[in-house]
DNA sequence: CGCAATTCCATTGACGCCCAAATTTTCCCA
DNA sequence: TGGGAAAATTTGGGCGTCAATGGAATTGCG
């Protein structure tokens, strides 16, 4: 079979999106871009919806991202991550307070309509600079919503840093940290 | 088969394949070129499909290569490489966010139809400059998809650098890529 | 009573999946 | 060693289903 599992079928991709099943490779993968309609509604990509359904959370948990001008979204898995993070900080520390404020205080739980659409609040759109289009970006246990243009810039930056990071790693051990199939001429 | 022997029989080849043992050495080996049909579908070379089947991953995991303008593809083995890298970072660190953006956010899981074909997303094709033809290049635990022309250029560059590199190492053993068993015109 | 927000319904167009034919490649036999 | 038959792949299409959209109806609130 090609990809079942999801009660939802797969993906489409209106404006240049990848595909996806979105079952259980554990989370949100890939990215999708779509427009807000006249009423400000946006369809959550079907693959992501499948993950959310699996997660069992009713609605969509959303909060401004800590480091970037985007929105972090998810369900129970995301809440759990937040909870775990807070749990590691001392109860009344200033740091914990800050995180709590940022992660919980500013969050909202959006309703998802029958068609899988949500309406972002004005403040959320303002924070991410969203106007007419948004890009959903999978991050495994959560996904982010970006203004397309900003995402592209951020992505370029991310790739650049990752490249540098990898060079550091490669200087350590010649062999990739991937033992699986022994490679032959895996050259590059 | 037309050519066996060298896992590297680099040369052009209209659309067909060179030495394709793609049997069971547990990895993607050799390279193949094929066209996209009217619907934008491309058949994954049978040998590669066999490897994927062995890998057990349903679908094809794809993400833009960090180093070159090509697409890295694979199954669990590739996925694991990425997962392992991210696993070393803490959930809410800025670093992890950056990496998952570049790795998970840009990844796609393509569905493979009954005939072993996939449809590359627009963004993927744009990244690799793919239009009507693609070249599949084995890299052991993963394989890359290139725009034929770019691959040839990349190959020439790679060989050139490898040659220089070898000169520095001085002798020691004969030319690695000039395999013992002489091959007749490995198809050109 | 009017405006607005929400829910439901219908249409459009992709995309997933299946079936069939044309080539190409492999293997066997003369 | 050449030819030929069989099998496997690679192609091309067609059809059905489902997701994305847009609009209309209903309900709640100001």
Count of DSSP-assigned helices of chain A? 5
Distance between the termini of chain A: 33 Å
Strand content of chain A: 15-25%
Query: Which percent bin holds the helix content of chain A?
Result: 25-40%
Find the count of extended strands of chain A (DSSP E, 2+ residues).
Answer: 8
Biggest interface pair, counts: A-B, 52 and 53 residues
Average pLDDT reading of chain A: 79
For this entry, what is the oligomeric state of its chains?
Answer: homodimer
| CA radius of gyration of chain A | 19 Å
What distinguishing features does this structure have?
alpha+beta; disordered N terminus; two-stranded antiparallel ribbon; 188 residues; DNA-binding; homodimer; 5 helices; disordered C terminus
Please provide a written account of the structure.
Two copies of one chain form a homodimer. In chain A, the strands form two sheets. In chain A, strands 1-7-8-4-3-5 form a six-stranded antiparallel sheet, with helices on both faces. In chain A, strands 2-6 form a two-stranded antiparallel ribbon. The first copy, chain A, has helices at 46-55, 76-87, 94-105, 122-128, 148-170, and strands at 31-35, 41-43, 60-64, 71-74, 108-110, 117-119, 133-138, 143-146. Chain A is 34% helix and 18% strand. With 188 residues, chain A is an alpha+beta fold. Chain A has five helices and eight strands; from the N terminus they run E-E-H-E-E-H-H-E-E-H-E-E-H. Chains A and B meet through helix 2 and helix 5 of A and helix 2, helix 3, strand 5 and helix 4 of B. The structure holds a DNA duplex (30 and 30 nucleotides).
